Amino acid sequence: xxxxxxxxxxxxxxxxxxxxxxxxxxxxxxxxxxxxxxxxxxxxxxxxxxxxxxxxxxxxxxxxxxxxxxxxxxxxxxxxxxxxxxxxxxxxxxxxxxxxxxxxxxxxxxxxxxxxxxxxxxxxxxxxxxxxxxxxxxxxxxxxxxxxxxxxxxxxxxxxxxxxxxxxxxxxxxxxxxxxxxxxxxxxxxxxxxxxxxxxxxxxxxxxxxxxxxxxxxxxxxxxxxxxxxxxxxxxxxxxxxxxxxxxxxxxxxxxxxxxxxxxxxxxxxxxxxxxxxxxxxxxxxxxxxxxxxxxxxxxxxxxxxxxxxxxxxxxxxxxxxxxxxxxxxxxxxxxxxxxxxxxxxxxxxxxxxxxxxxxxxxxxxxxxxxxxxxxxxxxxxxxxxxxxxxxxxxxxxxxxxxxxxxxxxxxxxxxxxxxxxxxxxxxxxxxxxxxxxxxxxxxxxxxxxxxxxxxxxxxxxxxxxxxxxxxxxxxxxxxxxxxxxxxxxxxxxxxxxxxxxxxxxxxxxxxxxxxxxxxxxxxxxxxxxxxxxxxxxxxxxxxxxxxxxxxxxxxxxxxxxxxxxxxxx
Length: 570
Known about the structure:
- About 20% of the residues lie in helices and about 25% in strands.
- By secondary structure, the protein is α+β, with helices and mostly antiparallel strands.
- It has four domains: about 1-80, CATH 2.40.50.100; about 100-180, CATH 2.40.50.100; about 200-245, Irregular (Dihydrolipoamide Transferase), CATH 4.10.320; about 260-485, Chloramphenicol acetyltransferase-like domain (Chloramphenicol Acetyltransferase).
- The strands form eight sheets. A six-stranded mixed sheet has the order 19-28-27-26-22-25, covered by helices on one side.
- The longest helix is centred in the middle third of the chain and has 16 residues, at about 370-385.
């Protein structure tokens, strides 16, 4: 509610079941200049701790609720005078002699980057800084970067708070210099309260009032707890978890590249993908790599596989096509080149790990030695956190290799703007042959998967694509001839399949089957057969007694009834 030029700061609604809260900490004091959306005060409820931002820029003229007070939803916490908003109380003070004011702006981090998010300020107003000293960290959707001080001096004003989104060229802070040395303040300045200065550390440390009350009732020692709330504040849930012997939850906000990766993973869920699998033998690839190694060339399996993927994608450009919408209509995008992304697991300065995918541009047109140079350059930049934003955009097909960790096969996520991602598994003998593979001459195998955007790529195309990669790795289309020639190495002899290292034992001769004496038994059974009650047919003779007239009748020979016993006579 505004009265003239005064804006009231009220306790906001924080949920249907929340009717009141406790003032935890004021981040500004009466008379301080505040910016719109800048955090003014922290409030704790029995459900959640929250930060109340300034509704407008101006001067904080009145605080109505002190720390520890319980206020109801809608109660006025403070008042802000918006007249002359943003004016500094030191605006009329003359600058120091020979002092110069400099602006710290959001730098250009790549052609595709237009904005970023302020991660963390390393300096605060009044702090002295040296030239090129890091004063703020910025995160974009491609890369994190540190912004240095343009000169030695003193930070006088911060214009973008942590979490704010800023555009390229926007002023982040102002500082003054004096003859190239850090300037000193001509008069003391009222400092804004900080958690450590305004709230003395007690046995509970940084605990909310609600948590302190619950801890007192339940007999929980707050000094032994670590908080899961904002800036490590101990909450009611932490106290109750400790009382019940449960491990306290620890919430850590995702920042920078980790937050961007989480966003990309969410976006990937909108892509309808399918995956093809193919297990191939690696005898030829392994043998050629050993030949290169013997010639002094450091070439890994991943180098050869990545190069084969680039060549295969050039032969089948459909695998690099990706989906988009233009004017609300679905379209297929063909970049006309193979831009190969290489997934890299990177350890950050704080010990956490993240995934980065630098891009080898127009990879299929590069000879192998230049492909290796581009590959090594990007990996080194990723390891040293030196990748620029332009190094991380434009991939239309990617390779990830979890096989180095022993993973047999993988179905990775496909990122927007890409048509296919290939994953390679571990190289090993087939399951069950690990201990005897070399003895029996078995070949090592590797499983590849092709996960593709089913809106623009079909299963048959993905299957042929994997077959094409296999053929190249087996040496088709002079693949290894080109690799060896580009490195200046003579191609070695053809790779022969492995042979068993032990001779197979001659099959043992079977002993002759025992002679069976079933004939007598069968005959005995025949003799013991009961006489039949059926009438006996007359015995037939040959030839018949009736013959042509004038012919001589030979002696009749009875036709014997065939025996039912088919056993050989003993």
